[in-house]
Prior knowledge:
This protein is of the alpha/beta class. About 25% of the residues lie in helices and about 30% in strands.
Amino acid sequence: xxxxxxxxxxxxxxxxxxxxxxxxxxxxxxxxxxxxxxxxxxxxxxxxxxxxxxxxxxxxxxxxxxxxxxxxxxxxxxxxxxxxxxxxxxxxxxxxxxxxxxxxxxxxxxxxxxxxxxxxxxxxxxxxxxxxxxxxxxxxxxxxxxxxxxxxxxxxxxxxxxxxxxxxxxxxxxxxxxxxxxxxxxxxxxxxxxxxxxxxxxxxxxxxxxxxxxxxxxxxxxxxxxxxxxxxxxxxxxxxxxxxxxxxxxxxxxxxxxxxxxxxxxxxxxxxxxxxxxxxxxxxxxxxxxxxxxxxxxxxxxxxxxxxxxxxxxxxxxxxxxxxxxxxxxxxxxxxxxxxxxxx
Length: 344
Ligand SMILES: NC(=O)c1ccc[n+]([C@@H]2O[C@H](COP(=O)([O-])OP(=O)(O)OC[C@H]3O[C@@H](n4cnc5c(N)ncnc54)[C@H](OP(=O)(O)O)[C@@H]3O)[C@@H](O)[C@H]2O)c1
C-alpha cells in the first residue's frame, strides 16, 4: 500500500523532501500527491527543476494543466495560504513545511474530515518540519525516540535540524560517560528568514542585517528542544547560535563535562561504536579534512569530525557537521516511512 503524502510550504525543506523522495530509491511505499504554497505553479515547477544548492532535479519535471508531472506521477499543485480553506485530496500525512505557524490548533485543520473519524478529504496525520508547540502529540528525533511514537498520534513534530544533529551525539555520550554540563554553539548557514541585503524583520533586529555580509548571532531554543527528547539533560545545557554567510550546511561546536572519566579518544570510540547501532544515516563520522561544502547533500543527521575532538582541563570538545536541508528532509521521509509501516 502506498503512503500518500502532501507538502504544505514548498520552500527549502518542502522541495528537498519531494526531491529526496525521488532520489536513492526512497520512493518505496511513499508518494507525494499534492503540494501547496503561496507561489504560482510555474515558479514551483521551475524551483523543482533547478536548485542552486543541490543541483538539477535528477529526472524530468513537467507542468501539465497546473500540476507537476514527475516520472509518470501527477502531483496536484495548490495555491492556498489559509490552512482552513485548503482542499487536500485524501492523504495519509501532511508535511507542514511552511514555517508559517507552529500551533496544534492550526495543524489540526489539515486533518479535514478525518478529524473525528470521518473519511474523505484531508490528512490522517500532520508532521511539522520544526519543533512546534509543546502540546503536539509527539516530537521525534529519528534514531533516538521514533519507536516510541504513539500509534494514535495525529500531530507530530520532527524537531529542528539542529536537534536532529545533536541529540544522537548527546545520547551516545550521555549513555557512555554521563553528561554533567554542556555548552553548544550552532554555526548555521543563512536561511530564508534573513534578507540578502539589509531589510525589515518583524521580530529580530539582528535579522534585519544582510545574511551575506555578516556573522549574525540569533536566538535559539535548542537547549529546550534537546531536553524535550532527553529530559535527563534539563538544566545542564547552554546553547547559542550564529548564522554565517554560506547557503547550506551547518556545524555544532560542543563542549562537554562528563561525570565519568572520558578523554578525546574515549569520546571518539563511543561515537564510532554506537554509530553502528543506530539506523542508517543518523550518526556518522569522518577523519578527512573537510570543509562545509563537502557535506552538501549528505543525508546523515550528524557527521562527527573525529580529528576536531579535543580535551582541555576536564572538558571535551566535539565538532559535528550536518546538511541542515538535505539530512533533515531525509529524516522527514524516514519518519513518514516508519509511520507507514507501523499503522494503528
Ligand atoms: N532550511 C532549513 O535548513 C530548515 C531545516 C529544518 C527545519 N526547517 C524549518 O522548516 C520550516 C520551513 O523552512 P524553509 O527553510 O523551508 O523555509 P522557506 O524556504 O521560507 O519555505 C517556506 C515556504 O512556505 C511558503 N509559505 C509561507 N506561508 C505559507 C502558507 N500560509 N501556506 C503555504 N505556504 C506558505 C513560503 O512562501 P513565501 O516564500 O512566499 O513566504 C515558502 O515557499 C521552518 O519552520 C524552518 O524552521 C528549516
